[in-house]
Prior knowledge:
mainly beta; seven-stranded antiparallel beta sheet; 1 helix
Amino acid sequence: MPFKRNPSLLRGAKIPESEYTTLPNGLKYCDLKVGGGAKAVKGSRVAIHYVAKWKGITFMTSRQGLGVGGGTRPSLNIITDQDPYGFDVGQSERGSVLKGLDLGVEGMRVGGQQLLIFPPELAYGSKGVQEIPPNATIELDVELLAIKQSPFGTPVKIVEG
């Protein structure tokens, strides 16, 4: 059975390189589950859960309330330990989110889950951050939970609860 069609078999399993699609910018992705909801486009405000790994070791997760922001701030989304991480797709140029995450989420559909592997130039680059050394390749398991976009294309904040 192909990996892309049975994510329950993937818990803890290493996905073969042949299962990933590689984009010209070096971003690699593997769909664990293709969502059936709205598609994330530039300007969409997305809510995700993610697990970030370096060399197979988890160093950040949205379920801990930590954000993937390129090291400019220690955390970006601390409310409770279960809050999703939110950002506006297309904002990586401002340094508010890692470029690899931004590019990986764009095009995903709500309910989808992907494994992303991005090279240093789409992650922390030649500087590194905290325990992540310079020129590190980062892996993310990303689940797109929700999208919110105003009718005029202006990003709006997701309000839940």
